[in-house]
Amino acid sequence: MRKMRIKRVISTILIVLLVVTCGGVTADNGIGIMVYGDTTTDINNAKDKKDEISSKLEDTKKDLEELQQQSEDTRAYIQKLDGKMTALDNSLYELNGKIEDMQLQIEDAEVKLEEAEIDADLQYEAMKLRIKFMYERSDDSYLEILLSSSSLADMLNKADYIAKISQYDREKLAEYQQTIQYIAQTKQELERDYLELDEMKLSLEEQKESLAYVQKEKEKELAVLKQQTDKAAETKAQLEKELEQQENEILNLVAKKAAEEEAARREQEANNSNNGNGSSNGSSGGVSESGFIWPTISKRITSRFGDTENRTSPHRGLDIGAVKPGVSGDPIYAAASGTVVISTYSASAGNYITINHGNGMSTVYMHCTVLKVSVGQQVTQGQTIGLMGTTGNSTGVHLHFAVIKGGQYVNPLLYLP
Predict the structure, then answer these.
(1) What pLDDT shows up at residue 149?
(2) Domain ranges of the chain
(3) pLDDT value of position 153
(4) What are 235-243's contacts with CB under 8 Å, separation 24+?
(5) How far apart are CA 333 and CA 340, in angstroms?
(6) Are 358 and 286 in contact (CB under 8 A)?
(7) Nearest to 64 by CA among 268, 203, 294, 228
(8) Ordered DSSP codes for 162-228
(9) By C-alpha distance, which of 285, 284, 278, 320 is closest to 303?
(10) Nearest Cα to 236, choosing from 396, 367, 59?
(11) What is the pairing mode between strands 350-358 and 408-410?
């Protein structure tokens, strides 16, 4: 009897020391389980940090989307400028052809004008000789010619001849004047057209130069946008990595919290047993290592635990593909009974759930399209907790199923039938 009392005193002292050392067991922390103060503080701090990272990540995503849109708009504008430059080049090519043709026509007109002027000069000299002859001989020469006729018919012929000579001289003089005038006018019109074409060419070249300047400035702007986009993408990737690390930290802390809870429960059971208060009540919702069921209808594994292909670190879960590849909506089942400690969205995990099964065991279900449970909810083995999807950082419809034991990720296949 005395030994029993001593045991009770020792047990009481140990419980008091445990409470004092651990800072006391807190009340419900919002996720449905009892935890020790230090771990709860760590989890709350981790969640606050996660929220801060998530906020920065969302801002960065918006900045990145805006930069990408600006880049697309700038590229489209440059492409439009390229089209205008091509059109200007084609216009300049055609205009240069017209200018060359016009230059040939002007040169041909100059040659014809020069020839006409030579012919006119010769004709003019001949006319001067006839006029001089007629002036020197006066009208008597025509009269002598007529009077020397042998007959009336001869006289008429000679009169007609004299009239034709005079008419020919008048016509040639008029023709000479018309030819000179036509060639001079044609040359003037050609030179005017040539000047207009040259002005058009100058205008097109100025437009091309202006477009080239704008295009160059836009290309500079695009280069700056690319630098900003690359920087934003790097920041986004870094924040996503930090967010994933923070989420893993929260999962580890939750697992640690579950382990602490289980250790406290077992110690309490041992104390109760030592105090003679009967046998253990057992764990509520606890499962053995072989008590899990498959969390999906499909058993098609698309990526195993520990895979490193196309990954920066080993895969810490098991990816299970949909019944129909690429089709969302397959039900996701609780692998074992327990308490939902996380049911939320993150950039990397998408919609995801964490269930505490006791005995230091937790399971994680990522990339859900729909969440059907909430934090603090008690679930039973086989209960539908969500639907398969591809939210978050996911390359296809699948479930990322993870098992945490004692705060460490372990191979899920060791616990699945």
Answers:
(1) 67
(2) 37-282, 284-417
(3) 75
(4) 235/60, 236/57, 236/60, 236/61, 236/64, 239/53, 239/56, 239/57, 239/60, 240/57, 240/347, 240/348, 240/393, 241/312, 242/53, 243/50, 243/53, 243/54, 243/57, 243/346, 243/347, 243/348
(5) 13
(6) yes
(7) 228
(8) HHHHHHHHHHHHHHHHHHHHHHHHHHHHHHHHHHHHHHHHHHHHHHHHHHHHHHHHHHHHHHHHHHH
(9) 320
(10) 59
(11) unpaired
Pairing assessment for the beta strands 350-358 and 331-333 based on DSSP bridges: unpaired
Cα(353)–Cα(252) distance, rounded to whole angstroms?
14
Tell me what pLDDT residue 35 has: 39
Reported as a single tens digit per residue, the pLDDT across 361-393 is 899 999 999 999 999 899 999 999 999 999 988
Q: What is the pLDDT of residue 283?
A: 37
Q: What count of Cα atoms within 13 Å lies in the side-chain half-sphere of residue 192?
A: 6
**Tokens 């900003």 belong to residue:** 228
Q: What are phi and psi of 204, to 5 degrees?
A: -65, -40
The answer to whether the beta carbons of residues 335 and 301 sit under 8 Å apart is no
What fold is seen in the domain 284-417?
Glucose Permease (Domain IIA) (2.70.70)
Q: Report the distance separating Cα 88 and Cα 203, nearest Å.
A: 10
Q: Are 252 and 46 in contact (CB under 8 A)?
A: no
CB atoms within 10 A of CB 105: 16
Q: What b-and-e string marks burial along 306-338, b requiring 16 or more CB atoms within 10 Å of the CB?
A: eeeeeeeeebbbbbbbbeeeeebebbbbbbbbb
What's residue 100's pLDDT? 84
The Cα 299–Cα 293 span in angstroms is 11
Q: How far apart are CA 272 and CA 266, in angstroms?
A: 10
Would you state the pLDDT for residue 130? 67
pLDDT of residue 9: 40
DSSP one-letter code for 279: S
CB of 273 within 8 A of CB of 7? no
Q: Which residues of the chain have pLDDT under 70?
A: 1-37, 127, 130-150, 152, 155, 158-159, 161-162, 258, 262, 275-290
- Within a 10 A sphere around the Cβ of 170, how many other Cβ atoms? 11
Residue 217: partners with Cβ closer than 8 Å, 6 or more residues away: none
Helix (H/G/I), strand (E/B), else coil: 380: coil
In whole angstroms, how far apart are CA 211 and each of 73, 91, 202, 217?
17, 15, 14, 10
Q: What is the pLDDT of residue 321?
A: 96
Q: Mention the CATH class of domain 37-282.
A: mainly alpha
